[in-house]
Design a protein that fits this description.
By secondary structure, the chain is an alpha+beta fold. It binds zinc ion (ZN).
Protein backbone atom coordinates (compact mmCIF):
# COMPACT_ATOMS: atom_id res chain seq x y z
CA UNK A 1 0.00 0.00 0.00
CA UNK A 2 1.59 3.09 -1.17
CA UNK A 3 1.69 5.89 1.20
CA UNK A 4 -0.71 8.54 0.41
CA UNK A 5 0.96 11.81 -0.06
CA UNK A 6 -0.09 14.25 2.57
CA UNK A 7 -2.66 16.46 1.02
CA UNK A 8 -1.36 19.90 0.73
CA UNK A 9 -3.70 22.16 2.50
CA UNK A 10 -3.89 25.21 0.41
CA UNK A 11 -4.99 28.03 2.49
CA UNK A 12 -6.55 30.87 0.65
CA UNK A 13 -6.60 34.36 1.90
CA UNK A 14 -9.90 35.04 3.54
CA UNK A 15 -9.83 38.58 2.34
CA UNK A 16 -8.99 38.47 -1.33
CA UNK A 17 -9.30 34.76 -2.02
CA UNK A 18 -5.81 34.40 -3.44
CA UNK A 19 -3.19 32.07 -2.08
CA UNK A 20 -1.45 34.12 0.58
CA UNK A 21 1.80 34.37 -1.33
CA UNK A 22 -0.09 36.30 -4.00
CA UNK A 23 -1.82 38.69 -1.68
CA UNK A 24 0.83 41.33 -2.14
CA UNK A 25 0.01 41.36 -5.84
CA UNK A 26 -3.69 41.43 -5.18
CA UNK A 27 -5.87 44.46 -5.14
CA UNK A 28 -6.47 44.48 -1.43
CA UNK A 29 -3.11 43.84 0.07
CA UNK A 30 -3.67 46.47 2.73
CA UNK A 31 -6.82 44.72 3.84
CA UNK A 32 -5.13 41.33 3.65
CA UNK A 33 -2.37 42.32 5.99
CA UNK A 34 -4.10 41.55 9.29
CA UNK A 35 -5.16 38.15 8.04
CA UNK A 36 -1.69 37.44 6.70
CA UNK A 37 -0.07 38.36 9.97
CA UNK A 38 -2.38 35.90 11.72
CA UNK A 39 -2.27 33.08 9.16
CA UNK A 40 0.81 33.38 7.00
CA UNK A 41 3.44 35.24 8.99
CA UNK A 42 6.23 33.21 7.39
CA UNK A 43 5.38 34.58 3.97
CA UNK A 44 5.46 38.16 5.07
CA UNK A 45 8.06 38.58 7.80
CA UNK A 46 8.13 42.29 7.16
CA UNK A 47 4.47 42.59 8.03
CA UNK A 48 5.06 40.84 11.28
CA UNK A 49 7.98 43.11 12.04
CA UNK A 50 5.87 46.15 11.32
CA UNK A 51 3.11 44.81 13.51
CA UNK A 52 5.55 44.17 16.32
CA UNK A 53 6.96 47.63 15.91
CA UNK A 54 3.45 49.03 16.23
CA UNK A 55 2.91 47.00 19.35
CA UNK A 56 6.19 48.24 20.72
CA UNK A 57 5.12 51.81 20.02
CA UNK A 58 1.87 51.24 21.84
CA UNK A 59 3.69 49.79 24.80
CA UNK A 60 6.12 52.68 24.79
CA UNK A 61 3.21 55.11 24.69
CA UNK A 62 1.60 53.39 27.59
CA UNK A 63 4.80 53.43 29.57
CA UNK A 64 5.23 57.07 28.84
CA UNK A 65 1.71 57.98 29.90
CA UNK A 66 1.93 55.96 33.09
CA UNK A 67 5.29 57.61 33.72
CA UNK A 68 3.69 61.02 33.40
CA UNK A 69 0.75 60.16 35.60
CA UNK A 70 2.97 58.73 38.30
CA UNK A 71 5.03 61.89 38.23
CA UNK A 72 1.81 63.86 38.69
CA UNK A 73 0.71 61.94 41.72
CA UNK A 74 3.62 60.22 43.38
CA UNK A 75 6.29 62.68 42.46
CA UNK A 76 4.43 65.79 43.52
CA UNK A 77 6.32 66.32 46.74
CA UNK A 78 9.55 66.08 44.87
CA UNK A 79 8.35 68.60 42.33
CA UNK A 80 7.30 70.97 45.10
CA UNK A 81 10.68 70.75 46.72
CA UNK A 82 12.31 71.66 43.48
CA UNK A 83 9.97 74.59 43.11
CA UNK A 84 10.85 75.88 46.55
CA UNK A 85 14.50 75.52 45.77
CA UNK A 86 14.09 77.50 42.65
CA UNK A 87 12.12 80.31 44.22
CA UNK A 88 14.83 82.36 45.90
CA UNK A 89 16.80 82.78 42.71
CA UNK A 90 13.72 83.40 40.61
CA UNK A 91 12.21 85.77 43.13
CA UNK A 92 15.10 88.15 43.10
CA UNK A 93 14.93 88.37 39.37
CA UNK A 94 11.18 88.75 39.22
CA UNK A 95 10.60 91.06 42.11
CA UNK A 96 13.08 93.67 41.20
CA UNK A 97 12.97 96.35 43.84
CA UNK A 98 11.01 99.27 42.61
CA UNK A 99 13.24 102.20 43.21
CA UNK A 100 14.70 105.11 41.38
CA UNK A 101 18.42 105.46 41.66
CA UNK A 102 20.02 108.82 41.04
CA UNK A 103 23.72 109.10 40.67
CA UNK A 104 25.90 112.06 39.94
CA UNK A 105 28.67 111.04 37.63
CA UNK A 106 31.56 113.28 36.81
CA UNK A 107 33.02 112.62 33.40
CA UNK A 108 36.05 114.24 31.87
CA UNK A 109 36.78 116.11 35.06
CA UNK A 110 34.32 118.94 34.61
CA UNK A 111 31.42 117.37 32.83
CA UNK A 112 28.83 116.28 35.31
CA UNK A 113 25.98 113.99 34.46
CA UNK A 114 23.09 112.95 36.64
CA UNK A 115 21.90 109.46 35.86
CA UNK A 116 18.38 108.41 36.71
CA UNK A 117 17.62 104.70 36.80
CA UNK A 118 14.45 102.80 37.52
CA UNK A 119 11.70 105.19 36.47
CA UNK A 120 10.44 102.54 34.04
CA UNK A 121 9.64 100.33 37.03
CA UNK A 122 6.91 102.80 37.90
CA UNK A 123 5.42 102.72 34.45
CA UNK A 124 7.14 105.87 33.34
CA UNK A 125 8.11 106.03 29.71
CA UNK A 126 11.78 106.87 29.71
CA UNK A 127 11.76 108.83 26.47
CA UNK A 128 8.97 110.95 27.87
CA UNK A 129 10.72 111.37 31.21
CA UNK A 130 13.94 112.32 29.46
CA UNK A 131 12.17 115.09 27.56
CA UNK A 132 10.54 116.41 30.70
CA UNK A 133 13.77 116.40 32.65
CA UNK A 134 15.61 118.19 29.87
CA UNK A 135 12.90 120.81 29.66
CA UNK A 136 12.59 121.30 33.40
CA UNK A 137 16.32 121.71 33.96
CA UNK A 138 17.01 123.39 30.65
CA UNK A 139 19.66 120.88 29.79
CA UNK A 140 20.34 117.89 27.63
CA UNK A 141 18.81 114.61 28.63
CA UNK A 142 18.75 111.32 26.84
CA UNK A 143 17.86 107.71 27.27
CA UNK A 144 20.98 105.60 27.14
CA UNK A 145 21.93 102.04 27.85
CA UNK A 146 23.70 101.72 31.14
CA UNK A 147 26.52 99.36 32.03
CA UNK A 148 24.13 96.46 32.55
CA UNK A 149 22.41 97.13 29.24
CA UNK A 150 19.44 98.60 31.06
CA UNK A 151 18.10 101.88 29.92
CA UNK A 152 18.63 104.90 32.07
CA UNK A 153 18.35 108.63 31.65
CA UNK A 154 21.46 110.71 31.49
CA UNK A 155 20.87 114.36 32.33
CA UNK A 156 23.62 116.86 31.65
CA UNK A 157 24.74 118.74 34.71
CA UNK A 158 24.15 118.29 38.38
CA UNK A 159 20.43 118.34 38.93
CA UNK A 160 20.44 116.14 41.98
CA UNK A 161 19.50 119.06 44.21
CA UNK A 162 15.89 119.18 43.12
CA UNK A 163 15.29 116.19 40.96
CA UNK A 164 13.55 114.33 43.78
CA UNK A 165 10.88 116.98 44.09
CA UNK A 166 10.44 117.05 40.35
CA UNK A 167 10.08 113.29 40.12
CA UNK A 168 7.55 112.98 42.92
CA UNK A 169 5.52 115.87 41.52
CA UNK A 170 5.62 114.68 37.94
CA UNK A 171 5.09 110.99 38.64
CA UNK A 172 3.11 110.66 41.90
CA UNK A 173 3.48 106.87 41.78
CA UNK A 174 7.12 107.33 42.61
CA UNK A 175 7.27 107.95 46.33
CA UNK A 176 10.12 109.84 47.85
CA UNK A 177 10.91 106.75 49.91
CA UNK A 178 11.57 104.87 46.68
CA UNK A 179 14.22 107.29 45.54
CA UNK A 180 17.85 106.80 46.41
CA UNK A 181 21.07 108.55 45.65
CA UNK A 182 24.37 106.89 45.07
CA UNK A 183 26.94 108.87 47.01
CA UNK A 184 30.49 107.65 47.24
CA UNK A 185 29.32 104.25 46.11
CA UNK A 186 26.71 104.03 48.85
CA UNK A 187 22.98 104.00 48.42
CA UNK A 188 21.44 106.83 50.39
CA UNK A 189 17.69 107.33 50.74
CA UNK A 190 16.45 110.59 49.35
CA UNK A 191 13.72 110.87 51.95
ZN1 LIG B 1 -5.22 38.29 0.45
Amino acid sequence: MAEKPQPVVVQYCQVCGLPPEYCEFGPEFEKCKPWLIQNAPDLYPDLLKAANANEADKVADQLQSTGISSADSGGSSEAKQEEVKRLPGGKIKKKEKKEVIIEKVVRNKRKCITTVKGLELFGVKLSDASKKLGKKFATGASVVKGPTDKEQIDVQGDISYDIVEFITETWPDVLETSIFFIEDGKKVPAA
